[in-house]
Amino acid sequence: MKKKIIGATTLAVFAVGAHAQSSVTLYGLIDTGIVYTNNQGGHSAWQENSNMLSNTVWGLKGSEDLGAGLHTIFRLESGFFSQNGKSYYNNTSFGRQAYVGLQDDKYGTVTFGRQYDSVVDYLGSIALANNGDGNNLAAHPFDNDNIDDSFYINNSIKYTSQTYAGVQFGGLYGFSNQAGRFANDRAYSFGVSYSNGPINLAAAYLQLNNGGSIANGALSNNDAPNFPAARQRVMGVGGNYTFGPATVGLLWTHTLFDNTTAASVPGVLNTLHFNNYELNARYTLTPALSLSGAYTFTEGAYSSASGSTHPKWHQVTLMADYSLSKRTDVYLEGVYQHAYGAPVDSAFGGAEINGLAQSTTPNQVATTVGIRHRF
């Protein structure tokens, strides 16, 4: 009897130890605010909205220690609108991220599922639009470079290295999952970053082939790009420097679309491209109060059978954020955008701050005050 009791106790100890090596965490962020816009479709607007700054999400993430420095990891993440409780992605339980993989303490991480591309992973932290918890209103026009993660890659396998002497690199490939159409609606990207003390540098590349053109490809219907194209390419470099309480960043991205269409632009565009130049800064006044801002100049160009046009955008973003606690903060932000170089009644003529409807004039101003809570 004594041996049985000892044996049962030993098994219980091992079971507790095995359980302690695994973890599952429920997490999330809720962002809701009041937004005023001077012109949306010819009218001013007062609206209660979520996701104006940060994506409102909830998710599960976890890991299991397999021993010898190897871990199983997973993440399931869903987006929703806090003002009405609706899901951000139709007919999708975990529309933001859904992946599982293996992480090795020495060789890096391999994951499979629905994931961010390398432009988001490596350049997102440099832009004001995707730094920290994000700032969706500060995205470049139409989020043409996906810096603000407007879409995600399905059927993807991703590798992320460990950091070696400040250098980290990685890549992603998204399968079309179609027999006989391997290259149709596929995606691939890669990136590299370097961090050393106050310096952070990064570069990345992304390519989509007929993105969103077939069901169950690398892009789903929920991720249909603003400008469906035979080929979309995004490339960029950037960096930031921190000195004391201040951080200053510079970012350039170049987006190319081949044989694309755009709303309110007649016919097929032979070419469409954007150059985005962003200067941003962040300053911590006190442990609770921080200020941030960005200026972005975007130059576009497109050609079609009827000729070529060169639209341009100036955008200024200013924000103040005050932390009430480690998990709750309130914010005030203003964004101004000026568009010119294209007919006002076209997709590129009226100003259109990310997340809002297009203005009927070349100018648009938006201000928002809101609260964010992390759990």
Automatic annotation (TrEMBL):
SUPFAM superfamilies: Porins. It is a multi-pass membrane protein. It holds the Pfam family Porin_4. It comes from Trinickia fusca. Homotrimer. Keywords: Cell outer membrane, Ion transport, Membrane, Porin, Signal, Transmembrane, Transmembrane beta strand, Transport. One of its GO terms (biological process) is monoatomic ion transmembrane transport. GO terms for molecular function: porin activity. This is Porin. Residues 1-20 form the signal peptide.
